[in-house]
Amino acid sequence: MPMKLTNPLAYPLVVLAGGVFLVAGVRLLRLPTVVALPGAVAIATVGAAVLKGREPESLGLDNPRLEAELRQAKERAERLADQANDLQAESLDLLTETHQVELLGIVQYACDRTRELPAKLDAMATQLSGRGSLLSVDNLTKQLQEAQHKQQISTGVAREQWQRLATSLERNIQLAQQGEDAREAQVVNLSTLIVDAGGVLQQLQNKLRSADLDSDRQTDELRELGLELNNMQESMDVLMTPQ
């Protein structure tokens, strides 16, 4: 792949290196200026291209903190997707009996949705590239209404999860109404959900490895963890999908 040209002025250190080469070449090595000057330019240009290549690819957002938060969320999602791959393989090895088909389906579905997270975050980055494109008050209000509806029809841990999401969305609406950039808060909420989902997935993996799979009580606990993970995926979808 050819090296892309990069403006050296964006990288003061390479400009300094080129300047040092120019001065040293002319004064110490007695190089003609017509030789030293192109050499200095080449050093600065190539150095800038190398440094640019080491930087993570920009997500094209207008808020550096937002881009950093989204990049961190993507890294967490990628780690979670790798963990889901492992769990998916383990569940296929361990849940082989006919009466375990439903539990296997729940675990496999949760893993499939977890593996989709990095791609969904890439799509979210595109949606966030224009200020307010995803987070207008109207769209946030629709997300809040969906979370509140899910809360009303859910019970137990799922109900608590939807309550927390609704509270976060209410704060984001206040930010948007005050003219603040609510996108950053939205991504922080999403990143927190990814961390929480990682904890539940780890519990599910540990339980699957140690449980007596012939015990109805223990398989019920596994089922509840799988459903909890799926519920978290639904909460993430609310945050990532424009209404």
Query: Which of globular, elongated, flat, extended, rod-shaped describes the shape?
Result: elongated
Decide which structural class fits the backbone. Answer: mainly alpha
Q: How many individual helices? A: 9
What is the H/E string? HHHHHHHHH
On the 0 to 100 scale, the average pLDDT is: 83
User: What oligomeric arrangement do these chains adopt?
Assistant: single chain
Strand content: under 5%
Residue ranges: pLDDT <50 for 5 or more in a row?
none
Helix share, percent:
over 70%
Q: State Rg.
A: 26 Å
User: Tell me about the biggest sheet?
Assistant: none
Question: Could you characterize the architecture of this molecule?
Answer:
The structure is a single chain. With 243 residues, the protein is mainly α. It is built from 9 helices and no strands. Helix 4 packs parallel to helix 9 (216-240) and helix 7 runs parallel beside helix 9. The two termini are 40 Å apart. The model has no long low-confidence stretch (mean pLDDT 83).
